[in-house]
Design a protein that fits this description.
single chain, 243 residues, Rossmann fold
């Protein structure tokens, strides 16, 4: 069994008592959490390879809702199996072929329609982690309905078209991420300077590995905690600034 080079330690997950509930939207299941007051602002959360039911991602949904947004995490895997920490790493490329983060446009449209028509949302942001970060980068190039985006350690790699962002986008990276080298981050920064016409931001958090920002408080190591909390604050601040 090869070690997973990029997945953070999913270890023994502490049980998380969610604040939201599950809904069915057309052919998609989704987890939704609403703030305690009514609002016309919403945020879509795009899960990582562990899928929409993973406790860490639901924790993030609840966290964002607590800042005053109708927050929703749809099942972008459309009922298929998410990746599991017990799966074999050599199978990952095949799994990815069937779970392409660039093929999320239809699901995004279904969720946008739901948020506008059923929840009265006027401004909608998007936040994604890892696999979801790639999906966010893709959608911020394609879907003008998304007012702002935050991509956490996920980028579209192999397209020259990937720098013409439609709306403000913030890229969060860990300095010690095995999947995204600092060279790739510098290239992204360089090209965005040349091509991007909207506000963007890139930030690298010292000593952090892939997946660092969605850990729940009880799963954090003390030395990482300040960076995790800073990344989350930065993520929320970006959303608040534009959504």
């Amino acid at each position: 069994q090869m070690a997973d080079p990029f997945l953070y330690d999913t270890g023994e997950r502490s049980h998380y008592g969610c604040l939201g509930h599950e809904v069915q939207i057309e052919y998609l299941k989704a987890y939704v959490c609403r703030p305690s007051f009514s609002t016309n602002k919403a945020v879509i959360v795009v899960h990582d390879v562990f899928g929409w039911q993973f406790p860490d991602i639901r924790y993030i949904v609840d966290l964002i809702a607590g800042h005053g947004y109708i927050t929703i995490c749809p099942d972008f895997f459309k009922g298929t199996e998410p990746w599991k920490s017990t799966d074999h790493w050599p199978d990952f490329p095949d799994w990815m072929k069937n779970h392409d983060p660039m093929k999320v446009d239809k699901e995004a449209d279904v969720v946008l329609k739901y948020l506008k028509e059923q929840c009265g949302a006027k401004k909608i942001g998007i936040v994604g982690f890892s696999w979801g970060g790639m999906a966010v980068h893709h959608l911020m190039l394609k879907n003008p309905q998304l007012t702002a985006g935050v991509s956490l350690y996920g980028i579209v790699r192999d397209s020259e078209e990937r720098y013409s962002l439609l709306n403000p986008t913030f890229f969060i990276f860990g300095e010690k991420d095995h999947t995204i080298s600092l060279d790739q981050i510098f290239l992204l920064e360089d090209k965005l300077k040349q091509y991007c016409k909207v506000p963007y931001k890139i930030k690298v958090y010292p000593g952090q590995v892939h997946g660092f920002a969605q850990l729940k408080p009880e799963d954090m190591k003390p030395e990482d905690k300040p960076y995790i909390e800073e990344a989350r604050r930065d993520m929320i601040d970006w959303i608040k600034m534009f959504v």
